[in-house]
Every structure is written in structure tokens, then in C-alpha cells.
Please model this.
Amino acid sequence: MKRVFSGVKPTGHLTLGNYLGAMRQWAAVDQHRADALFCVVDLHALTVDHDPARVRRLSRQAATLLLAAGLDPRLCTLFVQSHVDEHARLSYLLECVATDGEMRRMIQYKEKAARERERGGSVRLSLLTYPVLMAADILAYGTDEVPVGDDQTQHVELTRDLALRFNQRYGQAFVVPRATTPAVGARVMNLQEPMSKMGKSDDSGPGIVYLLDEPDVVRKKVMRAVTDSGRDVEYDREGRPGVANLLEILAACTGGNPEALADVYESYGALKKDTAEAVVEVLRPVQARHKELCADPVFVEGVLRDGAQRARAMARPVVDAAYRAIGLLPAV
Ligand code: AQP
Model:
């Protein structure tokens, strides 16, 4: 059976992008077909300016939303990254095979570092090394596949490079993983700035649909989405990014195809109305289950405790073997 690993960062409230690009696939497909691990990657949330209490709150919320989205602890392992020491242990070894040039080429690093500087802050070293920790997250479990949205595929490519390099230098320690992305919904764009990804830590609130937005808030955000100057509904990602984004969201929510849907609509208004309702319907069961789970925090804690135990047992032998392979003396 294939091993699958993926994660979500508690840097903000989870968005429709996180759901359509990743979480929905994890619940509907990955946990059924593979030995799957899903992780709230809280250490990654410390790479930018953060409020400790908020990170704790968002970590709990992310775990609850993953369960609400359909992850079933009988089918998969759900845990919090900082509860398993092997991630940080392995990250250091991988820093010893990665180069600073590789890190500086990462698109997310460039974008996030620029944003930190614009806000007048300094760039944390951990933001630069974040992809190495992500590689450790993946490699510690002998992962074959990493289901992610488009924005993370560069980091998975780097993970592959680091695994291959380590194996070549020090012997076969890691499985070399590959990224998988959904056919539709792999890159949900911001409704107000359709050339930019819908990101949970962005400032542009009205352009972001959060998983816990009330139905009327969702409707308002979608109805106010920026469209393009033309009038015809056409699927053209480059020329008509706003309309293309709505068509993709509608397609991802209804199981349709954005090109075919473009032929169905004669006005932007009708497209927006149907997209808003489709999003409301997709979010409805997730929100209902989230409410139930919030009333049972002991259950959620139990899932995370068991998940961490299982994850530790899987990661430890892989990381111990890498420690030996790279030349470190085993502890006695
Ligand atoms: N807009 C998106 N469209 C499709 N997929 C997306 N993902 C994120 N945004 C979109 C996918 O969701 C999974 C979890 O993402 P993450 O928590 O690792 O964060 P991220 O990729 O850095 O993107 P975010 O949510 O926008 O967070 P911030 O703002 O902190 O950078 C991943 O599989 C991701 O591809």
C-alpha cells in the first residue's frame, strides 16, 4: 500500500483553497486508497510573526476542521507536527545536504520574505529553511505521494532532490516521493485579486472564503468577486482570470468542467449566483460537523494523541537510520 503524507499550516483560518486544493481529496480519496498521514504543521507557523495563543487556537481549529472535512482516524493518522520530535531531528540532517541557493530560489520564500519586509519586519531564518523542514515532514514517513495544491509542488520537488542527494551520498535512506494535485481546484485564486492565490494569511479578507464563513458572508464575497472588463463568460485563465477563477471554483464544487460551464452562462451575475450557492452547499456539511466536534474536544484530543503515537512509531526508525547513515554515533 502506498504511503501518503500531507499537512496544513495553522497560519490563519483555513480557506476554500485549502479545502478544494487539498483537504477534500485527502478525505474523499487518499485516506481510502493509501496508508495516509495528515498533519497540522504547527512548527511552520512560527516562520513568520505570530501570536502564540493564536497559533495554539488555530492548530486546534485546523485539526477539528480536518476531521470535519471527513478525515477518519480509523482510516488515517492525524497528528500535530510538534508532537513528533523526529521532524525537527531530521530537518537538521537535511539542512546538511541542502544549499542556501536552493532555499533562496523558492517562490514562497521570495513572496513571504518580501511581504515581511513590506510590513517592516525582519525575515526569520526559519522562513528560509521552511522547505527543509517540510522535506523532513515528508521523508520521515517513507512517503510515496504528497497530495498538495499547486503552490506546494516546488517544495515537493526540492524534497525529491534532497532525498536523492542524501541517498546518493550516504546510502538508501529515503523513499523519493512525488506530488499529486487535483484535476480542478489545485489553485483557487483570491476573489479580489484573481492573479494571486487565495492564501489564508493574506490581508485581503473580502477576497478569501474561509471554511467557517456564514452562508451569507460567502454569498457576499462571491457576488463581489472582481470579474473582467468583457461581458461574455469565457474560460481564459490569462486573459480573464476573475471569471476563470469563478468557473474553476464552480467546477470544483459541482464536479463539472470549467470550459463546459463557460458555455452554460450568459452573464457574470448568473455565474456568481450559482458559484456562491455551490460553495455554500460544499461548506454546509463541513461546518455542521465542525460544530459537533467543537462540542467534543476530548474526542479531538484523543485523535491527536493516538495519531502522534502512531506517527512517532513510523518516523523513528527512518530518522534513526538516517542518523546512522550520515555518520553519527548511535546513542548508547
Ligand atoms: N489557493 C489555494 N488553492 C489550492 N490549494 C491551496 N492550498 C493552499 N492554498 C491553496 C493547499 O492547501 C494545503 C495546505 O496549505 P498550507 O497550510 O500548507 O499553506 P500554503 O500552501 O502555504 O497556503 P496558504 O493556505 O495560503 O497559507 P499561507 O497564507 O500561510 O501561505 C496545501 O496542499 C496547499 O497546496
Notes: The longest helix spans residues 297-326. Residues 6, 8-9, 11-12, 15, 17-18, 21-22, 148-149, 151-152, 186-188, 197-202 surround adenosine-5'-tetraphosphate (CB under 6 Å). The domain at 205-291 is CATH 1.10.240.10 (Tyrosyl-Transfer RNA Synthetase).
